[in-house]
Amino acid sequence: MTNLKGMIYTPACRVKDNPTPKKGPSFIVESKDKEYIFSVADSGQADADNYLLSWRNSLEYVIERSAGFKVRGSFADVDLLVASWLVCLIDVLFVGKEAEVLEGWLQKRGGKGHNYKNWKKRHFLLRGNLLSYFGDVRSKEDDVSQLKGFIEMSQIVELDTTSDHGVGYDFNWRLLLGNGKEYIVAAKDEAEKEKWIGAIRKRIKKLAKLAHPIALDYKETVVSMARLSRTVRGKTPVSNFFVLSNLNLRYYKNDISKEAVEDDWGKGLLGTMPLVGCAVLPEKDVPDSATVIDVTGNRFLLTADSAAQMADWTENINSLAKDLVKQIISRGDTIRLNCLARSESQNNGYTALCIDKNNIQLNFFMLKRKVDISFKQLKRVYMSDEEIFCLRYETSDEIRVLNIICANAKGVHAAIHAAFEEVKGERSEKKASAQKLEKRERKKKKKTDSSSPAKKPKPKKRSEAEPPAEAGSDADADV
């Protein structure tokens, strides 16, 4: 770090065009009180535009992922670029090992949210939770020299498979991300298109299951279905068909039957939101709307036809999520939740939470630190702010409070609180059952003792050869 010249705190930044480029293509990263102009060091570098675009896309991704971080008082200067890339690496390590890998050449162009909207031939790689694209085929497994950008599967909120998004390429489809960005991708023929779409859907579904994760033998049943309006980050509202089950909240482009959903998820699936780690927050000023936050912190505004309908959906989603957590804990399974977290004084980076019936483990990968809190130690779980959940627990010598700031704080808090309730309830039931059994045994013993009369001891019979002892003498003397 001896040659480090400076650091940029990315959550406080935004990326924008450079209106007055002087030497070739460039863009601006704007912080609270400064602007940084990024351009290619060598203006004669081949493929300079794409090289710069790759950096811009990566920076925008980092800023998007760190949007949940807020400056609260003093904080340690930590480069969140490292933390955000670590998110990708950790997810690939955990998910990619058992994931199928698909790669090949496709055409790509940027849609909404992109400055460059021309078609480019890219070598795509689908592995783990990432859909990456390169300028050329990789020379080896870990080669990233040709990396142009990547899409994280959890960021995809809509997969539009209709082929009406591109001119000149018939077999195309559209990916819409939670930040409003669009990617148009095209294959050489229908078979190639179906292969990629099937692989992407399979990966999204697999990640949706791993987000709990829960055993595959949990039976999924549909609870309610309705057409509602979904708004992502202030964009134009979109009408989707929502299906709420005991495990997930799904939304589709077209209406779909209950049988089709329960048979095989149904066709036209746009997105899946696991209920574990999910939270629904009513909008105070708009009674027919509520904000839905998923396990990763992505959110959208959900609007119903009436305030009563919205109240029913809010109650159902929150209660089903709570019941599911309790069911998982009671079965002895483990819940895993991920978040980008920070405390009041420092950035914790990528954090994995594991919850079982015995304890809560927080693994801060960037800090290489773990915190284990048993439910016997845990005294209270509460929210101190919209994006801060708190764990109050007891150690051998003091009471401590762990404050965690993250974009999906409400969902994480709800999951931990439900698990805490379930563990406390199980212990209370066991204690009450033990007390009841002990009381029954005492009552049974008392009843047995009272029903049988006490027997008087029989007087000792003297043998005829034994003379009676004289008064005041010791009968056993001189024996």
Features:
27% helix, disordered C terminus, 479 residues, globular, alpha+beta, seven-stranded antiparallel beta sheet
What does this structure look like?
- The structure is a single chain.
- The protein has helices at 48-65, 80-96, 190-210, 258-264, 307-330, 409-451; strands at 14-17, 26-30, 35-39, 102-110, 120-127, 130-134, 147-152, 156-160, 171-177, 182-187, 222-231, 238-245, 248-252, 269-274, 279-282, 289-293, 299-303, 335-342, 347-355, 359-364, 369-374, 378-385, 388-394, 399-405.
- The protein is of the alpha+beta class and 479 residues long.
- The strands form five sheets. The protein has a seven-stranded antiparallel beta sheet with strand order 7-6-5-4-10-9-8.
- Strand 20 and strand 21 (369-374) form a beta hairpin.
- Helix 1 packs across helix 2 (80-96) and helix 5 crosses helix 6 (409-451).
- The radius of gyration is 32 Å and the shape is globular.
